[in-house]
Amino acid sequence: MSGFDLQWVGNGRHAAGDVRFTRRETFALGLCMCCLPAHGSAAHTFSLNDLGNGLFVREAPHEEATLANMGAIANTCFIIGRDSVLVIDPGGSVTDGRWLLSEIRKRTAKPIRHVVMTHVHPDHCFGAEAFVDEQPEFIGHAALRPAFDARGSFYHQRLVEMLGPENVGRLVYPTREISDVAEIDLGDRLIRIIAHGAAHTDCDLSLFDTSTGTLFPADLLFVDRIPSLDGSLLGWLREAKRLSAIAPARAVPGHGPAMVDFEAAMARQLRYLTALHDGTRRAIAAGIAINEASRTVAADQGEGWILFEDYNGRNVIQAYKELEWE
Known about the structure:
Number of strands: 15
Shape: globular
CATH topology of the largest domain: Metallo-beta-lactamase, Chain A
Number of domains: 2
Strand content: 15-25%
CATH architecture of the largest domain: 4-Layer Sandwich
Order of helices and strands: EEEHEEEEHEEHHEEEEEHEHHH
Helix content: 25-40%
CATH class of the largest domain: Alpha Beta
Low-confidence stretches: 1-33, 35-43
Strand order of the largest sheet: 4-5-6-7-8-9-10
Largest sheet: 7 strands, mixed
Distance between the termini: 25 Å
């Protein structure tokens, strides 16, 4: 946790030796590591998967954001419809976004009318500036704007420090906000956009392509890479059931293979989230302090999850802060 061993203190603050943090300060220190850059160098090579039916997905590596990958650590995709193009998550930096735009233009000259930013984390939204000249609707959750207000400058500064201002670009706010369910017509297919309650974050969107049965759950579904909790564990468990009720034929996760069987992938994620929930609740009931819980809860769940040691303790701390008030 940024070099600090944080322990929950009853007055609503954390302590690390003689250092004390407010909830907001601790939140800034403990932000999802996949959002923030680590050191790296050299050029990153991107590739695009053509999944048919006008769907293209860039499958990202399971890495932290670095200069080497230009923040391109989340899956990004676009759908070419009869009349227009829809982009789902425009990349982790303006350089990443420019690459994505160039790949779209290699395949079609149709207008890019919609760019969806599925949540606040930089790897899913900082490429948006590359699409400004296309004049699309920039679509986000109704809670995305306040999330950008709270975190955007911090994210931007950290990315600038690593990638340089010429590669980061500016934060683009949504021009259309979704608070429930909306539909986008690409001419020959309807894309349903769903606004979720607090789950992975407090501003998650998912999308469902009604013509192909493909779900785009963004970071409500992690595959192979350990899930990262930055919102509500209870909410994530609820929203997972909501997604399962859609019964999608296939899914494009926010992190993981370009295409997966949704039912199997979500079942695996739910096993981890349930273990996190149950273990954290037992630790609280037993009076185990938050720092000790972060080292022990769900510690046996790491098999098959990349970056488990980096994230599980953080997930426990987030879950503990939520569940101790039940």
